[in-house]
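Hi there. Long-time user, first ticket. I'm pasting a complex I've been working with (about 965 residues overall). I'd like to know whether the download I got is complete or cut off, because the file seemed smaller than I expected. Thanks.
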Amino acid sequence: MPLICLHSPKGGAGKTMLTANLASAFARTGNKVLAIDFDIQNSLRLHFGVPLTDGRGFAASACEVDDWSQFVLSPGGPLFLLPYGEIAPERQRAFEKRLEADAERLSRGLEKLINYPGLLIVADMPCGSSPLLDALLPMIDLSIVPLLADTASLALLPVLDREPWQGSVYVINQSNNANQISRDVATIMEQRLGARLIGAVNQDECVREALARQQFVFDYSPASAAAFDIDSIANKATALLGITIGDGVVQKPLTMQGIESVYGL
Amino acid sequence: MMKKFLLFCLIIPVALLVIITPMESEKQALFGAAVVISLLIIGRIKNRAITLTLMLVSVLMSTRYLYFRVTQTLHFDSEIEALLGCGLFLAELYIWIMLLLNYFQILWPLERKITPMPADVSAWPTVDIYIPTYNEALEMVRDTVLAAQCIDYPEDKLNIYLLDDGKRREFATFAAEVGVGYITRTNNAHAKAGNLNHAMTLTQGEFICVLDCDHVATRMFLQSTLGPFIEDPKLALLQTPHYFYSPDPFERNLSVGRDIPNEGALFYGPIQQGNDNWNATFFCGSCAIIRRSALEEIGGFAVETVTEDAHTALKMQRRGWKSAFLAIPLAAGLATERLVIHVIQRTRWARGMTQIFRVDNPLLGRGLTLPQRLCYLSAMLYFQFALPRIVFITAPLAYLFFGLNIIHAPASMIFAYVLPHLLLSIYVNSRMNGRYRYSFWGEIYDLVLAFHIALPTLVTMLYPKGGNFNVTDKGGLLNEGFFDFRIVRPHLIVAILLAVGICYATLRIGLPGQPPTDTFVLVLNIGWATYSLIFLLAAIAVARETRQVRKTIRIDVSVPTLVRYSCGAVLRTTTADLSMGGCCIGMPDQQYNHGHIKEIELLLNSGAVNLPVETVSADSHFIRLKFKDIPVLRRRELVRVVLARADAWLKPPKKPDNPFRSLFTIMRCVFDLFWLNWKNRQKKKAAEQRLAAALKEGGS
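Hi, the file is complete. Here it is re-exported in full:
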C-alpha cells in the first residue's frame, strides 16, 4: 500500500513534525496509517505520546528478527507507529552494514506492513543520504521534501534536481507572510518548483506547543494555521497517490503479529 | 395596424362617454363602486395587458372626476372662495397631469440586460474615469479611487482622474501615490460641470465615466456598461442606479424606514426603465458612461443650470443621440446623512429642473420625439409638486375654521366622484411600482420638502437665471440624536392648525340648528384634515434625527483569515463581517482568548493581505478587531473584497406593496414619533435623577 517518505537534504526542516502530523491528518480523513521512524534520533514517537523512557523499536533487533511488524505500537485510533527504538552504537553500525550488504533486508522487514491492505505508511527518514534511504527508495510511492522558508534552503534548490531528491514534491515549512524574506523565498520557490510545491506550513507557535504536550497540532488546536496547512498538504498527497476514501471498500481490521502489545497510555 | 386603429376608434367614443356622462350622486356612487370592484377582480390576473387596461380605466375615472370638477364645482359665492377654490382645482389639475405623464412614462419599462463585451479585447474602447471632488474629505474619496482602480478593464485602455476643484495638496500626493491622474484648475467656474469640462480638455478617452467622489464602483462597472455603446454608435449615455449603502434620513429616522423600498428605488427602477423605453433616460450626475464625441458635439457638460446632468442629457438627445438605463447597481455611495442636507440637495434639484423647464423647455425646440418631450417634461414638472401639496393639506382648514366652501358640490357627490379616482390611482400605482415604492410614501417624501422648495421653485420659475451650485455635504456623523425643529417648523405650524381645526369642527358636529348637509360636509373636511395631519406628522417624524455612528459599511463575508498572536501562535479562522475599518472574526480557539492579537492575514483570492490590528472586543464566539493604519496599496486589496465585489450591491427585492399595510406602517411611524420621544425623555430624566442622587451621595 502507499508508502510516503519524508526526507530532506538538510536537518531541522520539520521532517519528523510533518511525518507525525501528516499521519494524524491522513488518519482523520479515514485512512489507516502507520508512521515509521527510520531516524536514529528516535524522536517520532514523542509526537505520538510515547514517553521518553520507552526505548522500544525495531532497529535494535532488526538484523535478527525477520518481520518487523511485531514492533508496531498502537497509540490509538487508526494510527500506528513503528519506532526506531534505542540502539547501541555498535548495533547501529551492524544494522547499517547489513543493509548495505543485503538490499532485501529492509523490504523483508517491512513486507508484511507494506502489503497490508489499506494501510498508508508515512516514513520519517534521517537527513541527507543514508543506506536506509537507498534501500527504501525503490519502494517509495511519494517522497515529500520539507524546506524552510529561508535563504539557506533557497541555496539548496540546485541540489534538489539530483538523486535522491529528484522526483519529490516539496513543502515549505515555517513560512511567514508577515516576514519579507520569508515571503520572497516562498515566491522564488513557487516559481522554481511550480506544481511540485504542494503546500506551505505557516510558522506557528502551536507546533511547538503541541510537541511540548506530546500532541498532534490538530489535537492541540484545530484552529491552528499549521494544522490547516498540514491538512491541505495531506489532501494534496492523497490526491497525488490516488487514494479514495468513501468508495465502499471494506477494510479488514488491522491484525498483525505484535499488535497485541498495544501500547497502554 | 388596422386592428389597432379599429380598437382606437372603438375606445375613443366609449372613453368620451365615460368621461362626460353626468350622473346623480347615487348613480355615480354605484357606477364608481362597480368599476372599482370589477377592476379589483380582474386585477387578480397578473399580466401586462390587464395592467394596461387598469391604467386606462384609472385615467378615465380620474379624467371623469376632473371633468366633473370643471363643469359642476367651480361656482363660488365669494371672491375668497373663488381664489381658494381655483387654487385647489389647479392643484388637482397638476396631479392629473402628473398622473397621465407618469403612466405614460412607465407604460413599458425596458428591462435592459447586460450586453456582453466583444471577445476581442483590442476592440474595447478607451475610458476615462472622472472622479470630481470639491470639499469632501480625502478619507471619503480614497476608497472611490481605489475601487476605480480595481475595475476589471485592460490597463492600457483605462485612465482614472481625480478632478480636485479644492486644489488640495494631500489629494495631489494621494493621486501620485496610488497612480491616478490628478487634475485641478485655476478657477472654479461652473462648479462640477466646469470641473468635468476642464478635464475633458486634458484627457482623450473615447468614453467618460463620471463617478461622484463617494461612489464606489464594483469591478464589473465598465464591462457591464460599455457593451451597448459598441453595438450602437448612436448611444451617447448609459446611466446606472445611484445606490446608497448608508441609510437616508427616511430610512434612519423613521422607525419602519428599513423595511420599505428607499426613496430612490422608484426613480432608479420603473421610472428610468420607462424613460429608457422611450429613449429618454437622463443623466443623473454620477454612475454613468458618456460618449465623448456626443459631449463634444454639445460643447461639453451643460453649464446653464444647476442640474448640469439632466440638461446635458437633454441637449445630447436634441441632437439625436440615444440614452439607456441599466437597472443594476454597479456603484454605491453615501446617502445624505441628515434631513436638512437632503432638503438642501433637493432644493437644488428642484431649482435646476425648473431652470431647464424655463431656459430649454423640452416641449419646445427641435430634435426630440413626442415621448421624449413628455418624459423630460414629467421630470421637470415633478419638482413643481410643492405648491399643490401645500394646497392639499391646508385646503380643509378653509372650511373647518371659516366655513368656506371651496368645492361647490354636495359632500356625497364629491365622495362619489373622487373616491374611484383616488382608489384606482393608488391601486394601479401599487400594482405597477409596488416593489419600488409603497403606497402613500411618495406623499411623505414630497411633504417633507414641500414647504422648503415651494419658494425656490417659484422664484426660479420667474427668474431662471439666478442661483449657484451648492455641493451636497456627505459623510457626516451624528453622535447624539436630536429633533430638528428648524427644518419642520412650517410642518409643525400647519399640523397644529389642522389639529385645532379638527377639534373645533368635531365639537360643532350635531350642534342644534345645523342642517344635516352641513354635518356631512363637516365630516368630509374632518376626514380630509385627519388624513393630512397623519402625513404631516409622518413627515415631521423624519426630523427626529437619530444617532448615526457606524462609520463604514460592513459586509457579511466569510474570508479565511490567519490570526497572528504576539506569542507566535497563528490560528486560522474566517471573518464574520468585514469593513474598511475593521472586521469581526470567529473565535479560533478558546485557549488563546487572552492572547494579544498582533496582526491578521486575510487570505483573499487575489492574494494574502496582512493587516495590523487592535482588539476592540471579544466574546466566546467572536473577536472584533479594528485595523490600524493600512498602507494604501493593501487598502486597495481590502477595497477589492469589501466594496468592489461584482455582486456587492445586489439586494433581494422588497415585498410587494399592500396599500393597507403601507398606511398602517405610516400610522406606526406617527405613533412611534410620540412614543419614542416620550420614552427618550423618560430615559434622560431617569439618568439625570441617577446623576443627581450620585452627586448627593458623593457630597455627603
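A couple of notes from our side: Chain A touches chain B through 16 residues (CB under 8 Å). The radius of gyration of chain A is 18 Å.
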